[in-house]
Amino acid sequence: MGNTICTQNKYDHRLKELVRSTQDITCAVGRGVPRSTARSWLRAPAAEVISIDVVQLDAINLQKEVLQLRARLQKLSALLRVMIVVLKLSGYSLNQERVPDGKQKRHLLHAIDRSRPTLPFRSVLRVIRLSQSRYHAWTRKEQCELNDSPSCPQNMPH
């Protein structure tokens, strides 16, 4: 005797809402929904659908928003390119520069962490010219104090 596995079908919430609003199950049954399932939609209360505001916009408003976002992206990209060139031309690098203040280090580490969902980690470090070894040293020291001082105990007991 073989085991049969029944999979439960999932139906579009808009089809369910159509059946509820018209009180007519024929449109659902005609699309392959079992009668008992369609009848249960008549009895059950409508589920609340949580959506984003963009779904409610018409095509013209969506196109307008896309154009505005593209213009904003172009401005930000141009500004970023200019800032990167300025950093490179100035010869500035966090590899040769000391950042003794722990608050400044914490601020920089927080900015790097906030950028991680959108930018590759190595790219961020390359742009700000911070070596991976220094970044990881700072994150290890964050458990103690980031201020440059000999008060933080060494990682190894000897």
Model description:
The structure is a single chain. With 158 residues, this protein is mostly helical. The chain has three domains: 13-43, no CATH class; 52-92; 93-149, no CATH class. It is 55% helix and 0% strand. It is built from seven helices and no strands. It has helices spanning 13-22, 26-29, 35-43, 59-90, 102-115, 121-128, 132-141. Helix 1 packs across helix 3 (35-43). The chain is elongated and about 75 Å long. The mean pLDDT is 80.
Ordered list of secondary-structure elements with their pairings:
Layout: H1 13-22, H2 26-29, H3 35-43, H4 59-90, H5 102-115, H6 121-128, H7 132-141
Helix pairs in contact: 1-3
Question: What is the H/E string?
Answer: HHHHHHH
Low-confidence stretches: none
**Which percent bin holds the helix content?**
55-70%
Structural class: mainly alpha
The number of distinct helices, counting runs of at least 4 residues, comes to: 7
Q: How many independent structural domains?
A: 3
**How would a textbook summarize the main sheet?**
none
Tell me, rounded to a whole number, the average pLDDT. 80
Task: Give the distance, in angstroms, between the N- and C-terminal Cα atoms.
Answer: 68 Å
Question: How much of the polypeptide forms β-strand, as a percent range?
Answer: under 5%
Rg (CA only): 29 Å
Question: How many β-strand runs?
Answer: 0
The rough form would be described as elongated
